Structure formats: structure tokens, C-alpha cells
Amino acid sequence: MFATIFEEQNDYFGSLIIKDEFGNKVVNNLASPIGNVDFNILKLEEVTDLSDNVITFVIADNLTEAEWAKIRSATSSSIFVIGCTSPVQEPQADSSFICETSPELCIQTLISMMKLIGGDGLVMTDFTDIRHVLIECGQQNHVIYIESTHPEEAIERVLKQLSSKSIALDQVKGILLNIVIGEDFEFSNIHTIIEGVTAEVSETTSVIFGTTFDVNKQGQELDLNMIVSY
After folding, report:
1. Least packed by Cβ within 10 Å: which of 74, 139, 180, 208?
2. What digits encode the pLDDT tens for the residues 15-43?
3. Which CATH class is domain 2-118?
């Protein structure tokens, strides 16, 4: 899907908007570009016309209604806000708010989404699927991040974190799962993880997964970044 989009864009196909120190802390830990993706990085006060965007990320630990209105009016693209909840009560069209207060988890989430969108992995993920899970499946999104060396252990840790966040499995409407692996990782273990997660949620839950590579991972070492929508 994005092959065509990349060809149509003269410079950037998306923007990364950051607010204050929280946004700076996240973006300072990013390598650019990530995977096959490049973004125009802007401070919130620099946002004007973003009509050429296909996708927009926002990193902020809070947004006022006026700030959100400024971003939303600047672009008709899909917007993914990482770090805070929506400043307005009404559902926002083509927008997703991923509530996570930890800058470290925001960094992991942003990198994970950029790599999935940029096609940097063994199992590819289409942007329409990502959009479906994060925007269409639910109004609330939370992040789960674990490290493991065994698929069964990874599943157990994921379920434990879901429980600690008081997220009822039968209320989960969508899951976006990125499995970060090394070159020697056994492909069958990917299926073990996916089957283990899907077995615990409703049959109607949309589970979208992809893999991205980390050259520092050895054997069956893995990171698992999951965004849960409900």
C-alpha cells in the first residue's frame, strides 16, 4: 500500500508532532529514519498546513482542546496520539489516543508502529489493518511491553500485564502486536505466541501482528510490543 504513497509524496509522507519536554525526550531517542519510514518532525507551535500528510503522529503527555483542534484542522490524515487521552469527550474521526505516561514505553510504541508501517520485518503489516485496530476497534488504547526468551513465558507475561491494568479480556476489541526478533528466531514460535494470545480473547477480537528485526537479538530472545484497543 505505501509503495504507491511514497511515490506520490515529494518530501515526507507523514509528520511527527512533539509537545514540550515530554515530546523532546521521546524524539531524542529515535534514530532517523526508522525502517523505511521518514517523518517531518515539528514542534506543536510550528504546526500549520499538513494537508499532504498520509499519517500524523503526536507525542504529548497532555493536550488542550485548542491544541487538539489546531492539529486536527491542519490535516485530514489519520492521527495517532501517543502519551495522553483525548482532551474532548466526543469520539474523534480517524484519530487514536494511546494513553501511556512512561516516556520509555512511548518510545517503544512509536518505534514499533513506525517499523510496522515501514515494512521492516519478516511478517508484513498493512497500514489499513493498523488503522482498523487502533481507530475503528475501540476508544481506549493501552500499551503492553515485555521482554522474553521463550514464547510461553511471553504469553504469560502479556496476560499478567493485562490483568494488572484491569483490562477484561472479553472487552478487548483489537490487538496490534509487534514481535521484535533476531535472524535466528524460530518462525514456529511466532505462531505459538499469536495462538496463545488469541486463545485468551473473544472470537470477535481483531488481532493484527507483524515482526520487526533487531540485529542484537540472539536465538529466541524477543521483545513484544502490544497495543490493546477496547
Report:
1. 139
2. 999 999 999 988 887 765 565 556 789 99
3. alpha beta
